[in-house]
Amino acid sequence: MRQKILVTGGAGYIGSHTCVELLAADYDVVVVDNFSNSKPAALDRIAQISGRSVLWHEGDLRDRALLQRVFSQYAFAGVLHCAGLKAIAEAQREPLRYYQHNLEASLTLLDAMAAHDVRRMVFSSSATVYGEGARVPYREEAPLAPNTVYGRSKMMVEDVLHDLVQSDPSWHIGILRYFNPVGAHPSGLIGEDARGSVNNLMPHLCQVAIGKRAELPIFGHDYPTPDGTGVRDYLHVMDVAEGHVKTLQYLATESGLLTLNLGTGRGYSVLEVVRAFERASGKRVPSRYVPRRQGDLASYYADATRASSVLGWHAKRDLSEMCADAWRWQSNNPDGYI
Ligand SMILES: NC(=O)c1ccc[n+]([C@@H]2O[C@H](COP(=O)([O-])OP(=O)(O)OC[C@H]3O[C@@H](n4cnc5c(N)ncnc54)[C@H](O)[C@@H]3O)[C@@H](O)[C@H]2O)c1
């Protein structure tokens, strides 16, 4: 009998790649997703890659009756909690919606887990929890001081998970703080289906290269970095997906709370990424310098040594692979999932 794992937000960018890795590791997968930022087509593509389907339920995690039904139907061995809203600027404008989808949804999910005695969870957190005060490279024990609503919504869930484990050490909780996941499955069948206004660098690069946008705005070129543009720790989404499976496996026997950075441990500037993308795609990407965005930091990247020592995980794929896979997904699916 295969173990069944619930993946919330499993049709989304991180969730879909993680489903592929879970199926490859011989788990059965059940997805709950409200498709607010994804399409069921992603789940068909997962089946195409894996040769096995995921079961899925459309609905919102804040719907207690839905969770009651799903948890009664399946005996889950664990939950990967990837559902959430993630657009930083939008969160500043709509804090209540962000706290509802990120915090309230997590509380409702944890209630359902407790009620059905499912105590293993991996939570999608973010490097944005560190904020301005932390020293680079960020270590997991650095003080948290997120400077955005989005980052605070992630920190609040982390606090809840921390308190839960304090109150009852029989929980097995993994918190994964991703840095900047990019790229796509090498098949080109699943990837980041960026909708609405695109905020992140890689989807923006892809859209300029495919002709959907005229140019790439580069926010700030007067940062104290080697070429003046912002520096981030980009890592391949398949490395992120592998990190989830390894964490889930670790938590099968280890209880308590494990918090890990998922990053490569090195930063790339915007200009370095643009050049790598141009090489991988064979396309020239026109760009223009514009003023810094409020809240953006100059440079940050992970200290990724804990994930390596605890899980034996490290990011294996380099920047050229990230760019080549992102471009394959974009050029094979110019309009995303349709
Ligand atoms: N992609 C990144 O750069 C990044 C970085 C750090 C952390 N994260 C976190 O990782 C998680 C996954 O990110 P992603 O990039 O895959 O985002 P995504 O938007 O592609 O996927 C999130 C999925 O959750 C679903 N969803 C949202 N709210 C829901 C709700 N209340 N009930 C049910 N489903 C809901 C969406 O429809 C979507 O399919 C998010 O929690 C995000 O905050 C992402």
Secondary structure blueprint with pairings:
Blueprint: E1 4-8, H1 13-24, E2 28-33, H2 41-50, E3 55-58, H3 64-73, E4 76-81, H4 88-93, H5 95-115, E5 120-126, H6 149-167, E6 172-178, E7 180-182, H7 201-209, E8 216-219, E9 231-232, E10 234-236, H8 237-251, E11 256-262, E12 268-269, H9 270-281, E13 287-290, H10 305-311, H11 319-332
Parallel strand pairs: 1-2, 1-4, 2-3, 4-5, 5-6, 6-11, 7-10, 8-13
Antiparallel strand pairs: 9-12
Helix pairs in contact: 1-2, 1-8, 3-5, 5-6, 7-9, 7-11, 9-11
The protein binds nicotinamide-adenine-dinucleotide (NAD).
Nicotinamide-adenine-dinucleotide binds at residues 9, 11-15, 33-38, 60-62, 82-86, 101, 105, 124, 126, 178, 180-181.
